[in-house]
Amino acid sequence: MSGQLKPCPFCGGKARIDIGKNAFEDAEVSCDCCGTQGPNCDDGFGREDNQRLAIAAWNTRTTPSQRLDAQYEEEITAANQMHRDGLITYDTLKQMVNLAARMKRVQGLDAATVERWVPQIGQRVRVTDASEFAGDWARTNLWVSGVSVHGSGDGLDVTVAEEWPVYPRGRHHNGQTDGWRVGAMSCRDQLEPLATDPHQHGGKGA
User: Fold this and answer.
1) Which residues have CB under 8 Å from 18's CB, separation 6+?
2) What is the pLDDT of residues 134-162, one digit of tens each?
3) Of 83, 113, 82, nearest to 185 (Cα)?
């Protein structure tokens, strides 16, 4: 039975299943490393059925979206209970519900962007149609020459160069432009990555 268990979802450790020494022969899965425990299952028809239920419960993995939905429902339920108990006013209840909804949206966007592209210095990129200047830059070779957090805290501010490597001023034309947004929740990425071609080093129309 234990070979069917997935690793611990929190630490990746090995899991084991324990059977209660009682008339119900309840079953429970736990992690040998961090001690995380699954639900105690005693609703089955005997030992083997309880084992099956405990393993199924342990092996269930929720998605970020499912976790956010559950968290949102818990917060709304708690707020409604506080209102029924007379601990908060109706106006405060509405504020708490609105705040929970906003947090769910923001956290949902964060979860969706966990695997998003992060620009790397020297990486070749192109301008997307999210930028109003997309047409002007459509045939321009660009390389990432600088990355910083945007002043608003929302996403990144990327600087690009029309040539790579970027030479110091006075030796060669820099052709650098900053202000390109990437990874922001308020707008689409204005740049996207391209496969680097070491034979293409410069200028418009290449």
Assistant:
1) 27, 28, 29, 30
2) 888 888 889 988 888 787 777 788 999 88
3) 113
